[in-house]
Structures are given as structure tokens and as C-alpha cells.
């Protein structure tokens, strides 16, 4: 549900900022940075917003940290009542470079002159992994709704009706539009987001679901592809368990102070 960006005094609200930040994911885990409790503090001063955040470990990939902080900045600045968002990444081995780069609108290469290339190939690879994992969730929802593998692999974007007024469900048309099946909309919407981000909806194939390589699925291979997409989700869950442990340890009350600052 969308949150009104303005409070009673006409200023942007913390709830609205947090709702925008909830759209930012840890690219390795494909999970919201709000859900992962990376956000330490949100400060609002008129049309300016400061967001402080800490990742599970100081050694988190600089490319991953860069993606999360730039995405957080851009999401908050997308609010109509925000003129500037400033990000304060804390306790990271490259916090100085990242905070300067993000807040001064530098490119990754300008912030890290010694870096080997940009973050975009990394982002594309992680988006593809997320697309595969989300496909497993979406096809699982369709199976639960009663569709079979042959019907699922034949679906196109035009067969989905996600804009049902005031409803969390979607309508999926099968049998050449002769039958509509009601399905939870969330896994389908999440899949479509990554399918679009990876360019899958713009290629020459109309089929909505694909093999991990991006090819249409032979109905006889549906279960094999389901197994492969499941493994992508399992891999992310495994990474998430490691991050959960690091996150819990980092925020433990008896943890010694950790600072990467040299001064």
C-alpha cells in the first residue's frame, strides 16, 4: 500500500521515506534493506533527508554496498517532497569512498579509480539470479492455483491481469482466454519486476517464464527447470543465513566498538 509522503504539517514523513527504502534490496539476497534491518536512522529536515545504514559486515563487497547506497539515495529522492537525500554508510571498510561518491554524485569509477570496471555487469548478473529465484516463487503460486506445467510455460505477459481494483490477487487467463484463475499477485509482480530489469520482456520470445539461460521452456522440461530455479533461491537463502548471523553478531550489546576510521 502506498504511503502518503506528507504529514499533517505538509512535510515528508519517516514512514514515506521508509516505504521508499523498502524497495531497495540487498542485491546478493534479493531482500529489502528495511526487512534486513540495515537502516539505523532517518533524519528529516524540511526537504532534506539523511539516512544512516550499516551492513552485516564491514567487508561487504564495495560494489554491493555501492548499489544499495545509490539505490537508497535515488528512491528517497523520488519522493516529490524531497530535494536531497544524503546517505551515511557506517562501519564499512570503504565508507569514506562510498559516502563521498554517493553524496557527490560520482560514478563508481570516480569513487574507486583502481576498480576494474563498473558495477553494472555485477548488477546485471545479480538481477538475473534474482529473476530465476523469483520465477520459482511465481510458478509455485501458479501450480498452487491449479495450473499445470504445460499451461504455465505457455503463458505470456498478456495473460496476466494484475490491476484488480482493491485486491491483492491477480487474474491469469488460460485455455486461450477461456478460463481465468485467481492467483496471489505478489510473486507474479516480483517476478515481472526482475524479468523487466533483465530485458526478458523485450526479447523475441513471448513466453513469460524461461530457462535460466533465457530460452522458452519445453513442457517436458518444466520440472527440471523448476528444480534449477529452486536452487537459485536456496543459494540466496544460504547467503542470507550467513548475513543474519553476521548482522546479529554485529549488533550484539557486548560487541567491542568497531570502526574502520583511521583518525
TrEMBL record:
Species whose genome carries this gene: Haloplanus rubicundus
Ranges of compositional bias, category Basic and acidic residues: 245-263
Gene3D superfamilies listed in its UniProt record: Fe-S cluster assembly (FSCA)
Region Disordered: start-end pairs: 239-263
Name of this protein: DUF59 domain-containing protein
Ranges of residues in domain MIP18 family-like: 14-85
Amino acid at each position: 500500500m502506498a504511503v502518503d509522503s506528507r504529514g499533517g504539517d505538509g512535510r515528508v514523513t519517516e514512514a514515506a521515506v521508509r516505504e521508499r527504502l523498502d524497495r531497495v534490496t540487498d542485491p546478493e539476497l534479493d531482500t529489502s534493506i528495511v526487512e534486513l534491518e540495515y537502516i539505523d536512522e532517518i533524519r528529516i529536515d524540511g526537504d532534506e533527508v539523511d539516512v544512516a545504514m550499516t551492513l552485516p559486515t564491514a567487508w561487504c563487497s564495495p560494489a554491493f554496498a555501492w548499489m544499495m547506497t545509490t539505490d537508497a539515495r535515488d528512491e528517497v529522492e523520488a519522493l516529490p517532497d524531497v530535494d536531497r537525500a544524503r546517505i551515511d554508510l557506517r562501519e564499512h571498510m570503504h565508507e569514506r569512498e562510498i559516502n563521498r561518491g554517493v553524496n557527490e554524485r560520482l560514478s563508481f569509477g570516480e569513487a574507486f579509480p583502481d576498480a576494474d570496471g563498473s558495477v553494472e555487469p555485477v548488477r546485471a548478473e545479480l538481477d538475473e539470479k534474482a529473476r530465476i529465484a523469483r520465477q520459482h516463487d511465481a510458478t509455485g503460486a501458479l501450480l498452487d492455483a491449479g495450473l499445470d506445467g504445460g499451461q504455465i510455460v505457455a503463458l505470456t505477459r498478456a495473460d496476466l491481469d494484475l490491476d484488480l481494483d482493491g485486491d491483492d490477487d491477480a487474474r491469469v487467463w488460460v485455455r486461450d482466454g477461456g478460463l481465468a484463475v485467481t492467483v496471489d499477485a505478489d510473486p507474479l509482480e516480483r517476478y515481472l519486476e526482475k524479468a523487466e530489469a533483465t530485458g526478458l520482456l523485450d526479447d523475441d520470445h513471448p513466453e513469460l517464464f524461461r530457462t535460466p539461460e533465457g530460452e522458452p521452456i519445453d513442457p517436458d522440461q518444466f520440472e527440471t527447470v523448476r528444480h534449477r530455479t529452486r536452487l537459485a533461491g536456496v543459494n540466496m537463502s544460504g547467503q542470507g543465513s550467513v548475513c543474519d548471523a553476521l548482522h546479529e553478531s554485529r549488533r550484539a550489546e557486548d560487541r567491542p566498538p568497531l570502526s574502520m576510521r583511521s583518525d
